[in-house]
């Protein structure tokens, strides 16, 4: 038993000696490589010639003008502010005037917002479409729109009628007499004058003056005194219209359509 232990110890001692020898050999090889690397001379790299520097330009104050005027980070900024003027809003069409009346409480004008529109009575302070009728006088009308004021006369606001074609000369035409409901009425002719119309109505007699009266503008005729024809009656190309107003009944003859 002791022999075996001695043999095993000798074997382990031999293994340790062999391992120590190999370790020392590796250490010697590493030292040799280290000395070889440290003692090796480095080869100098070729030196390239430095580029020739351009001559510096003299400073000019004008070259810094864009920096002073513009924002550095935005090229479209500049001190000149351009304010684009807004196009002026066009004035809307003015109302159409059909006449004026004064029953003692101040002048009242008959207007329609557009040609062929419904006719209404207006006084100062009323709204007529986009316009404000600021004041009404016997001479003119004052309108306000978007802070602007416009003065118009009744003649300017009336619908311009086309001039009738020239007809061959003829003798003075007499007003024709028509009957509605068995009652005679006067039908004015194109060339009938207001004086001839009044004389013709007088010749018919009191209480029978049915039919359009004198022209009050805008192709509208007034009702004659004593006109007994009903509302909606058509005579001589005109239709009788009766409306209720704050001042009572409003009677007129409009062109029949």
Q: What does this molecule look like?
A:
The protein is an alpha+beta fold and 257 residues long. Among the domains are: 96-157, Roll (SH3 type barrels); 176-255, no CATH class. Helix content is 23%, strand content 28%. The protein has four helices and 14 strands. The strands form four sheets. The protein has a five-stranded antiparallel beta sheet with strand order 10-11-14-13-12. β4 (127-128) and β5 (131-136) form a beta hairpin. The protein is elongated and about 170 Å long. Residues 170-194 and 196-208 have low confidence and may be disordered.
List the secondary-structure elements in sequence, H or E: HHEEEEEEEHEEHEEEEE
List segments where confidence is low: pLDDT < 50 over at least 5 consecutive residues: 170-194, 196-208
Please indicate the percent range of residues in DSSP E strands (runs of 2 or more). Answer: 25-35%
**In angstroms, what separates the terminal alpha carbons?**
150 Å
Biggest sheet record: 5 strands, antiparallel
Rg measurement, Å:
57 Å
> Strands across the major sheet, in which order?
10-11-14-13-12
Q: Tell me how many strands there are.
A: 14
Query: What is the general shape?
Result: elongated
**Portion of residues within helices:** 10-25%
Number of helix segments?
A: 4
């Amino acid at each position: 038993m002791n022999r075996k232990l001695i043999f095993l110890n000798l074997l382990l001692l031999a293994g340790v000696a062999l391992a120590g020898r190999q370790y020392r050999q590796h250490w010697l090889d590493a030292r040799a490589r280290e000395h070889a690397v440290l003692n090796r001379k480095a080869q100098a790299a070729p030196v390239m010639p430095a580029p020739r520097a351009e001559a510096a330009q003299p400073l000019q104050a004008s070259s810094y003008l864009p920096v002073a005027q513009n924002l550095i980070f935005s090229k479209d900024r500049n001190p000149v502010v351009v304010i684009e003027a807004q196009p002026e809003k066009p004035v809307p069409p003015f109302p159409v005037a059909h006449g004026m009346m004064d029953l003692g409480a101040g002048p009242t004008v008959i207007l329609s917002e557009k040609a062929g529109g419904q006719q209404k009575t207006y006084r100062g302070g009323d709204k007529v479409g986009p316009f404000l009728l600021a004041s009404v006088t016997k001479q003119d009308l004052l309108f306000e729109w978007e802070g602007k004021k416009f003065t118009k006369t009744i003649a300017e606001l009336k619908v311009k009628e086309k001039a009738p074609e020239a007809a061959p000369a003829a003798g003075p035409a007499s007003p024709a007499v028509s009957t509605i409901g068995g009652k005679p009425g006067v039908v004015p002719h194109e060339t009938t004058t207001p004086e001839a119309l009044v004389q013709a109505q007088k010749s018919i007699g009191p209480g029978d003056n049915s039919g359009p009266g004198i022209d009050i503008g805008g192709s509208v005729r007034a009702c004659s005194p004593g006109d007994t024809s009903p509302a909606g009656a058509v005579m001589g190309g005109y239709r009788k219209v009766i409306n209720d107003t704050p001042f009572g009944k409003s009677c007129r003859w409009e062109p029949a359509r």
